[in-house]
Amino acid sequence: LAPVLDNRFDIVETGFGKKNEALLNQVSLIRGEGLRHVPQLVMIMIEGKNGQDQLFTMIHNNAHSNISSLFDEESNRDYANDDLTLVRGVLGSYPEAYLSLTENEIPNLVKTLQNLNTEEDYIALLDKFAVRRSSPEFWSFSDRVHRWYQKDQPIEFGLLDYNRFENR
């Protein structure tokens, strides 16, 4: 199937070092109750050592013990089996947080994600890497994200909706 599989969301050929690509791939192995405070969609802009930006989407997958009912979701949540998926590019239209870092900070980001246990841990992650909605840099960063998105994914490109964007 290799000739027909679409690998455009794989974390390969990013321009980052192989070690950093391997670290980013480890994000998709993170699971557990510590992810409870991570929003559904987080977009991560990483500036490579070569000066080129790469955009990633981190998806928080909510685990459930049963999905037979539309109501009372909380009683069916299985937080211990929540996990993350990290893909290259944009997936989804409603980012809830933006993170911005350099390639040199990838090990720190991955380690921080692996060690999330509390909301305070998540807020510390935001304090280090987030471009918050209240930041004076927010709209210029949003423009940077949209430029990358339009250039890299012109067919899917569209304006991202900030209606669900958190402000922690």
UniProtKB/TrEMBL annotation:
A molecular function (GO) term: isomerase activity
Cross-referenced InterPro entries, in alphabetical order? Fatty_acid_cis-trans_isomerase
Task: Tell me which UniProt keywords the record has, alphabetically.
Answer: Isomerase
Q: Which domain of life is it from?
A: Bacteria
Q: What is this protein called?
A: 9-hexadecenoic acid cis-trans isomerase
Print the organism lineage.
Answer: Bacteria, Pseudomonadati, Bacteroidota, Bacteroidia, Bacteroidales
